[in-house]
């Protein structure tokens, strides 16, 4: 959870809250009880964050968008290699941090 928290810029308690509010966000837990986020879940976190913070959706609005995506069988792009997606995500976090400092 710490790495995902750092990567997304969200506090762990926010991530736990989102897990309760958005059923689509459901990371597996290992035998020690630690959350193991998949790449698709990290992408979902960024989508939720964008909808809430940038587009100013309400929680109910986010749920509606997620449901519509689910109904339209939204499938994240699998053409981009995993390591490239991770690098791009880190660049996004860096740029957002830089933007906040400006």
SSE topology sketch:
Layout: H1 2-8, H2 12-21, E1 28-29, E2 35-36, H3 39-54, H4 59-71, H5 82-101
Antiparallel strand pairs: 1-2
Describe the protein in words.
- The protein has 102 residues and is mainly α.
- The protein has a single domain, classed as Multidrug-efflux Transporter Regulator, Chain: A, Domain 2.
- Helix content is 65%, strand content 4%.
- It has helices spanning 2-8, 12-21, 39-54, 59-71, 82-101, and strands spanning 28-29, 35-36.
- A hairpin with a 5-residue loop joins strand 1 and strand 2 (35-36).
- 6% of the residues are buried.
- The model has no long low-confidence stretch (mean pLDDT 87).
